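User: tokens in, sequence out, please.
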């Protein structure tokens, strides 16, 4: 959660009739497959949908029932969706084309719910956030539950998720900006003092593509106190990066089972994926395929032959780069 807050604040710097959904609404939109105890909800949002209403509805279902929720919004649709998006029995959440409001509204509130989510997908959505509230949340301690989110997730897609500011920029004072810069420094230092680790023991697939205002520290924040022992696919395309983050250069340390790293359509000029010496030898039968297509690489590293002779073969696709031979 904290790195999403960081994204909001960095993004702000760079770009310097509502009714409660009734039980019958979800009963109608969530037919039950009795044979597998699954209710599959498909909801189209014209105005507003509150996750809290959905969460209340799931709390009254039998404990054996699992739920999937697919939400698609109209051009004016707003989904009030607070992180970490927990609801009893919810195993799949798929949201497309929505304005996401209230994203950090429960960041200081324990959910008292267990992690159950297996698949999370947010695509082509906009996170609307109040700058002052975000800065305040950024400076307050959060629990491991809120920070890590749901550690049961197997597949995570956060694709094309920009942030927008709900404040009038004229209301943002110099003190607010000074507080923002102070928050960034304090937070980056604070990561070394966090005593817990987020263990994503089941996570196999991440897609965090199309982020034109991503912080250069995004992957640092992702790996600072988190483990990804089973991650095999990592998509990080169209993010405007001009260099490969150190954490991806040292992929053996952070993502030991990685099979596909897609960095296509960035602005990367050079690369090194042999990384620093790592004491824990990574050995797996599958090679690591790195997609660097359509970047800005002009020269192939002199140690490129070593990419095929290590404990894990590394295959790099450089199609569409302005290579100088």
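Assistant: Sequence out:
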């Amino acid at each position: 959660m904290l790195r999403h807050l960081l994204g909001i604040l960095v993004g702000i710097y760079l770009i310097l009739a509502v009714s409660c959904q009734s039980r019958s609404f979800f009963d109608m939109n969530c037919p039950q497959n009795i044979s597998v105890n699954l209710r599959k909800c498909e909801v189209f949002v014209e105005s507003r949908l509150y996750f809290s209403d959905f969460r209340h509805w799931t709390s009254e279902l039998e404990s054996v029932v699992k739920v999937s929720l697919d939400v698609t919004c109209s051009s004016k649709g707003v989904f009030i969706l607070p992180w970490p998006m927990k609801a009893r029995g919810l195993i799949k959440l798929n949201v497309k084309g929505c304005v996401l409001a209230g994203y950090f509204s429960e960041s200081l509130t324990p959910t008292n719910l267990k992690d159950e989510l297996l698949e999370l997908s947010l695509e082509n959505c906009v996170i609307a956030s109040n700058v002052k509230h975000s800065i305040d949340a950024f400076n307050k301690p959060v629990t491991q539950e809120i920070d890590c989110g749901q550690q049961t997730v197997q597949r995570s897609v956060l694709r094309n998720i920009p942030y927008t500011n709900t404040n009038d920029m004229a209301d943002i004072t110099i003190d607010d900006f000074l507080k923002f810069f102070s928050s960034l420094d304090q937070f980056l230092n604070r990561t070394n003092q966090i005593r817990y680790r987020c263990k994503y023991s089941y996570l196999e697939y991440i897609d965090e593509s199309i982020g034109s205002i991503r912080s250069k520290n995004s992957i640092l924040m992702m790996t600072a106190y988190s483990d990804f022992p089973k991650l095999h696919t990592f998509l990080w395309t169209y993010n405007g990066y001009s260099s490969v983050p150190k954490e991806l250069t040292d992929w053996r340390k952070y993502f030991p089972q990685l099979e596909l790293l897609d960095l296509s359509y960035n602005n990367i000029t050079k690369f090194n994926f042999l990384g620093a010496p790592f004491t824990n030898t990574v050995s797996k039968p599958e090679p690591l395929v790195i997609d660097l297509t359509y970047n800005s690489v002009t020269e192939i590293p002199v140690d490129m032959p070593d990419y095929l002779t290590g404990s894990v073969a590394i295959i790099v696709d450089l199609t569409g780069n302005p290579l100088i031979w």
